[in-house]
Amino acid sequence: MYQSEFTDFMTEFLDKNPQVDSERRELRLTWWDRKVDLDDQRRWKAARVPQKPYVYQPE
């Protein structure tokens, strides 16, 4: 089965540096796997300023 040079490189790199995978998982939990706060989301939508159709047009 074909594997690109990048896939070979990453496989070798992760084999030599196993701590990278654990750090990656930890950082993913920090930024992506979070519960959504619906109240915060509602406030962000309410505070949004509508954008003009053509932003570079002087007023």
Architecture overview:
The protein is an all-alpha fold. The protein has one domain. The protein has helices at 5-16, 18-31, 38-46. α1 (5-16) crosses α2 (18-31). The longest helix is centred in the middle third of the chain and has 14 residues, at 18-31. It is elongated. The chain starts with a helix and ends in a 13-residue tail after the last helix. 0% of the residues are buried. This is DUF3460 family protein.
Q: Which helices and strands, and how do they pair?
A:
Elements (H helix, E strand, L loop, with lengths): L4 H12 L1 H14 L6 H9 L13
InterPro entries: DUF3460 (IPR021853)
Protein name: DUF3460 family protein
Pfam families: DUF3460
